[in-house]
Amino acid sequence: MEINSEKIRNCVVVSVKGKIDAVTSPDFEKSLSELIGKGEKIIVMDLGSLEYISSAGLRSILATAKHLKPIDGKLLFAGLQGPVKDVFRISGFASIFQIFDSRDEALQQL
Amino acid sequence: MRTSAVKSLILPAKIENLHGCIDFVAACAAGQGFGKRRISEIRLALEEVLVNIINYAYSDRPETGDIEIACRQTGENALEIEIIDSGAPFDMLASKEPDTEAEIPDRQIGGLGIFFVKQIMNGIRYAREGGRNKLTLTAESAGQLSA
User: What is the crossing angle of helices A55-68 and B112-120, to 10°?
Assistant: First the structure.
């Protein structure tokens, strides 16, 4: 798993490459909580290069969303592909989060 | 029905062995000609089952036990995956379905992994035999999750 973050205007775009599974999800969650700790409130998660996510990854996403809620933050998703899209759909995450085809589309909403 | 040789693997139930176990099953599925997308689904189901065993099966013991995995081809397009541990009894078939419609504040992740396994696999059987949990998963080659 590789995580890159980029500050764009008032938000941070986090791109995750590879796999978010039971082994990598603690690092994934830590990166996100560090960004929130530094004051970031709007996170656009670009998952265009993410090939795999398990329930461990969803748990980290949910924990992050719960941290953002009381500070009026936002968590948006972009570029979901293949298996990751399937997992978001069957878990119901596709209906509780805002999901866009591309990061540009997500950024336009902000 | 033609049944091919059984391939098996035994490793300690530790998180550092997760990928080794999953790769073993993925290789069995690939060897049987399953497509990339279906193999990715099988990897997901395996992770969910194995992480449960790694985290909970031996948590009441001072030392962790093993995970035993056996794969065999059953018929033209089906793979049978047997996963055995000698930890605390656990029947995933008896677990409650998660609420996949709850909003963020009420959302729980517990149960989602097992829900994935049920969605992905064509068959799931559980037996408690001689102090061991035996989970038998059957996967056909056609994908189950793609819309």
Answer: 140
